[in-house]
Design goal:
About 45% of the residues lie in helices and about 5% in strands. The protein contains three helices and two strands. A two-stranded antiparallel sheet has the order 1-2. The longest helix has about 30 residues, at about 100-130. The two termini are about 20 Å apart. The mean pLDDT is about 85.
C-alpha cells in the first residue's frame, strides 16, 4: 500500500524537525567550546512528492590540506551545514549565540505542532473516507 504524498511529506518534515532539534541542542551544549561553529540542518526537498525530479544536487567539495590549514572544516554529516544566521563570533572562535539557538528551538516547536495538527486532520479525513467517525 502506497503512503499518500501528504502523509509522506508530513513524515519527512517531522524527521527533519527532529534532526534539527538535535543539532540545535548540540549547538547549545557546545556554546562554550572554543572554536565550535554553529550548525544547522538543510531543508528537505519535497519536489518528489509532487512528481518533480528534485533540485540539482549540491556540489561536493573535497577539502585539500591547504584548505584545512586555512581553517576550512568538512561538514559532519549528511544534511548538516554551517549556520548562516550568525550574529557574533567570540574571541575564542565560537559563534554560538544562545538567544539565536533558543529562538530556533521555538520555531522547531511551532513547526512540529503544525505538522502534528496536519497529521491529525489527515487521519480524521481518512477515517471518514473509510466509513469511520472522523
Amino acid at each position: 500500500m502506497n503512503t499518500p504524498p501528504i502523509l509522506a511529506g508530513i513524515r519527512e518534515r517531522m524527521q527533519n524537525l527532529s534532526e534539527r532539534q538535535r543539532v540545535v541542542a548540540t549547538n547549545i551544549a557546545n556554546s562554550e567550546t572554543p572554536g565550535y561553529k554553529a550548525r544547522e540542518v538543510s531543508e528537505p526537498n519535497f519536489a518528489s512528492l509532487v512528481g518533480g525530479s528534485g533540485m540539482i544536487a549540491a556540489p561536493r567539495v573535497q577539502l585539500t590540506d591547504r584548505m584545512k590549514s586555512l581553517g576550512a572544516i568538512q561538514p559532519i554529516g549528511t544534511g548538516l551545514i554551517l549556520d548562516k544566521d550568525i550574529t557574533e563570533t567570540k574571541p575564542d572562535g565560537n559563534n554560538v549565540t544562545l538567544e539565536n539557538q533558543l529562538l530556533k528551538m521555538g520555531e522547531i516547536q511551532a513547526d512540529f505542532t503544525a505538522m502534528t495538527g496536519l497529521y491529525r486532520k489527515q487521519m480524521s479525513m481518512l477515517k471518514t473516507a473509510v466509513g469511520g467517525r472522523g
